[in-house]
Amino acid sequence: MKIIMLGAPGAGKGTQAKMLSEKYDIPHISTGDIFRANIKNNTELGKKAKSYMDAGQLVPDELVVDLVVDRIKAKDCFKGFILDGFPRTIPQAEALDYALNNQNEKIDYAINVDVPDEDIIERMSGRRACVGCGATYHLVYNPTKKEGICDVCGEKLILRDDDKPETVKKRLQVYHEQTQPLIDHYEKKGALLTVDGTQDIKVVFEDITKVLDK
Ligand code: ADP
Ligand code: AMP
Predict the structure, then answer these.
(1) Is the CB of residue 9 below 6 angstroms from any atom belonging to ligand 1?
(2) Is the shortest distance between the CB of 201 and ligand 1 below 6 Å?
(3) Is residue 202 part of a domain?
(4) pTM value?
(5) How many domains does the chain fold into?
(6) Which listed ligand is nearest to 160 at the C-alpha?
(7) With a 6 A CB cut-off, is 31 part of the ligand 2 pocket?
(8) Among 6, 39, 93, 201, which lies 20 to 30 A Cα-Cα from 191?
(9) Torsion over CA: 33, 187, 58, 8 (sign)
(10) CATH number at residue 96
């Protein structure tokens, strides 16, 4: 099953992608996590991506497309994958379509986690991310067992720099301009599944899996 997650920053794509990855035993590929790992390890890619990310802008298509196209050719993606945070522009979606088409494959579901802008700022200011494994929590909606410590790996949690309200506003603007048009793109392909992302995390998951399990 080949899935992509669509939705505004903070809509809950990563939260659902992790749960889907476990249920269907397919890899969760988050381009944001890949960039953050590169920044942490001070790689050339990380150095190039950081200034864009800090400003709430998208990293240029040429820095992300080959990376993803190569990643989905790996053996662990034979059964399928969940792309989270990619594609984010029409050229990225077209490059993905082209790469899959060459292998007689296609995206089965583009899951659009729908959350209005008003809710996003609150979501983002309460989001806490693990510096170790990338797990994501929320102070109110998805708290850890021990405050400030990751349930999965025991590392410290942080508020991401780009989750501060000013950057979130910029990211929302970029989302509406560059990423939202992908909803139409996948609707035309008959792959779109829109779910109400304002519901409880478990209810959103049920809404998705009842369609995927049909
Ligand atoms: P995205 O990957 O789309 O940027 P995340 O999955 O990281 O978003 O979720 C953003 C924040 O909102 C996190 O703190 C997460 O715990 C919280 N969250 C995710 N889904 C829900 C939900 N359905 N209701 C309330 N909070 C949620
Ligand atoms: P995310 O963790 O998905 O919210 O991504 C964090 C940041 O990484 C984004 O605001 C972008 O700057 C960058 N990024 C992640 N994925 C992409 C992508 N597919 N295209 C361009 N930039 C990306």
Answers:
(1) yes
(2) yes
(3) yes
(4) 0.96
(5) 1
(6) 2
(7) yes
(8) 201
(9) negative
(10) 3.40.50.300
